[in-house]
Fold this sequence. Notes:
The structure holds 2 protein chains of 2 kinds.
Chain A: H1 2-41, E1 44-54, E2 62-71, E3 75-82, E4 86-91, E5 94-102, E6 105-112, H2 117-131, H3 134-140, E7 141-147, E8 154-160, H4 163-168, E9 169-177, E10 180-188, E11 193-200, H5 202-205
Antiparallel strand pairs in A: 1-2, 1-11, 2-3, 3-4, 4-5, 5-6, 7-8, 8-9, 9-10, 10-11
Chain B: H1 4-24, E1 26-28, H2 41-52, E2 58-65, H3 71-86, E3 91-95, H4 103-111, H5 113-116, H6 127-142, H7 146-153, H8 160-168, E4 175-177, E5 180-182, E6 188-195, H9 202-222, E7 231-236, H10 238-272, H11 275-300, E8 302-304, H12 305-314, H13 317-328, H14 335-357, H15 361-383, H16 385-388, H17 394-397, H18 400-412, H19 414-431, H20 451-461, E9 468-474, H21 477-497, E10 502-504, H22 513-521, H23 526-536, H24 548-557, H25 571-579, E11 580-585, E12 588-598, H26 603-610, E13 616-620, H27 625-654, H28 657-682, H29 687-708, H30 712-716, H31 727-748, H32 753-776
Parallel strand pairs in B: 1-8
Antiparallel strand pairs in B: 2-6, 2-7, 3-6, 4-5, 9-12, 9-13, 10-12, 11-12
Amino acid sequence: MHVCCAARRRWLMLAALASLISPASAQADDSLVRLFSDLGAQRERHARFSERKFSTLLKAPIESSGTLIFRAPDILEKLTSEPQRESVRIEGNTVTYEGAPVRGRTQRRTFALSEAPLLAALIESLRATLAGDLPALRRHYQVSWIAPQTAQGWQVSLVPRDRSLLEAVSRVVLRGAGSELGAVEIVEANGDLTLLNITPLAASAAPPKK
Amino acid sequence: MTHPAFRWGAWLLGVALCATLVARAAVVTDITAFLPGPATREQALLAEQLRDGVAARVILIGVEAASAERAPAAASRSAQLAAALRADPQFAFVANGDPAMFVTERDRLFNARYSLSAQVAPQRFTVDGLRTAADELEALLRSSAAPLIKPFAARDPTAELLAIAATLKPARSPVNVHGVWFDPGGRTALLVATTRAPGFDVDAQAQAVAAIRTAFDQAESKVSAESKQALMLHLTGPGVFAVQSRQAIEHDAQRLTLIATVAVGLLLLLVLRSPRFLLWAALPTATGALAGLAAVSVMFGSIHGITLGFGLTLIGEAVDYALYVQVQRRPGQNTFLWRALWLAVLTSSAGFVAMMLSGFLGLMQLGLMSMVGIAVAAAVARFCLPDVLRPLDAARLVNFALLERCALHARRLRIAVVLLAAASVLMLIARGDSIWNDELAAISPLARGSGEMDARLRQSSGLGDLRFVLAVEGETIDQALSRAEGVHTPLNELQVRGAISGFDSPAKLVPSEAIQQARRSALPDESTLRARLTEALNSSALRVEAFEPFIADVQRARELIITPDYYSGTALGQRLAAQLVERTRAGSTGAAALITLSDVSDATAVKEGVKDAPGIAFIDLTEVQTLIADYRVRAAWAAALGGALIVLILAVQLRNLRATARISAAVAVSIAITAALLVLIEGPLTLFHLVALLLAAGVGTNYALFLGMPRARSIRESHAEPAPAELPVVLSVTLAAGTTLIAFTTLAASTTPVLHMIGITVAIGASVALIVSMAFAPATAAAA
């Protein structure tokens, strides 16, 4: 009798929740679409970035900084200047990596993004966001609000759809304000964390308009 | 056998017994039973591979979307299909590119990494070696790929998993789109399924193909109507071809058998005007077929599908016995008839005994089935038919004058026929071996031209051509593996030179004991490793405490021994089972490791590159020719033996040298002419022509016997001139030849190569045998 009541109450609560969520999630979806169309309106961006990687494997966080460039529809460049020069350029399906010379040899590598599906998913969390391409993002992640858009800013959570990516990355959090992406946080399955802070440079403040 | 009740009782009992035996017999469809017994080591391995090899068990599946926009629908269908097929025990392995399904395999490989990685050597675990590894790991951790490296980094800082992945990675793999494999066009999702049953078990393959189609259709019923018509299923692979070609043969055979039966029935009805005869004539044939099948199932335990098909054709000869008995029989004067019938059965049996001695399971079954079949058919025609049918009055039936004139004219052809036979023999000798077509395209689905779809799916799945295999034999599995390791170096060189695009060796998954031992002893003990790692990470950004899992794994690896069983229950285990063969041959045990070569562009270079390795054999799965050439030589010997046996039986039974010589000559001459005509019309002859020629010889011997055997009186007086064949005999033989001609000409019209070959051979053989036997028949009193 008691159990039955408890079960019933729980069921009623769920039903109530569901009735609350359904219209709300439709609204949430509309507002996500609006956010991404705002993000995509900027065809070219230049930004400073600083990245900190926290890991149990490391004695101290690895810090790096440099410039981030995005050009619509699909060019993303990450030029690291500190502590070592390094560049990653992604255009369409092609990734070109150039690193600081190791033991006198220049590190340069080109490969197709489709060869490394997990890496592709990780890169897309940044590139598709900057491109405002919500459908592309949704191919790899379940996209949902953590904190909807207010004057102070917004937070979006990306949870990988792919099981093998989920083994490594439990979620990606996007933070921003208005049509600017301010930070990307990658939370790994083992608790390790990568924090990417993005500060727009003056060049991108005035988006080129047709 | 005097009382009808006794005869029919015996018949009924026999039929009941045979029916029980046949009903309980299993029908098998493994085509390799019809491949010859191998003579050399390479041939034995080839036959084994054809039967059990992975290449013959692969089914390639394409799910094609109507447009690139529909590709996600194809991807989800691919996932549904893969899930359904993995749940089906018929399939050993199903892959569609979904990375999630490789998790089990990856974990096994990861845990075995210190046994499998070629990087594992003592210097790798020194302070310097560990420092180099740590620097590389640190660089990776700084990169964007860091989150993907980290799940393994604490256990595998020396990146052995990457080293293993590099050697095990297929030479080419399909592109991964929407989480599954796709062709480069991005419209067709690709799956690779391996059946548990061998590729030559056509029944099992047919079931597998049906299971795939059902799974595809069921997945279809779940999805929305709009995407329904947008997807198409493509299947290809040796098993799929085998199934398709068998369906074509069955369809053709059923249709043509019906046409032939109606045509033969009409002819007999027209000439004999006895519907009653038509009905009863089926009795000896049906009884014979049943008895033949029963004998095969008792002797061999099962009946082969081909025996069933061919065998029924072979005892088509049995139909003739009803004709001989009913047309020639006259009250009280049947000594000649029974004697000729007995001899006909005896001589035909000699031919079939030859087939049984050939040593090939398929031919042995065919021989036994035919021998028992015709003996029983003759007995039923001899003992049972007279009870239910009155003799047919030949004189009433046909225009005797016409038949007599034909027989007369035929005898004038004797010299011409002999000359023609001589010319035929000369021609066959002049052409030599070129009269034989040893390509067994009709038997081996692997050798068949596989079409555009197969090439497309194969190309884009990265499966390539699986036709080349290196077999490395040893006395034990370990010796075979160790020898296989010996050819890894030359194969790597061949890969660099582009002669092959890759190779897949079982020794990469299960290294030999010696190599495993060497790798184990390269691993330091716990305290040594911890001390070295601490020193190596001194100046690094990495924390030594984080790598305790690495130290623990290395300690575990020092005890680990990898055997094929280590992989059981995984796709890797399936692959190993096919690639590591243990067997007992000729009393001694042995083992073989099979290395699959992909995209061989220069087979000669490969052969040259590995020729010095011990125990190695280079196998081209399409090269069944060597097997067939051997088969044909043995079959020819068997045929020659059969011929000698026939002559011996005639000589002993007739005790009349002239008659024996005449009958033997008639048979030899008709075979020579038939063979020459066949080569002229058909080009090089195949195995099927040869088997059909044996049947034609059997039928021809009967004609020659009935037309050329001395009459009853003259057997006792061996020097007396034999009396002429009586007209009922001529009529019955002509009718028998006529029905054979109609039935097999129908078969010759088939577009299915096998049926066409048998049809044309027997049709020509029967016609030639009739004319030749008439020409060689002793002169009639009227002509003398």
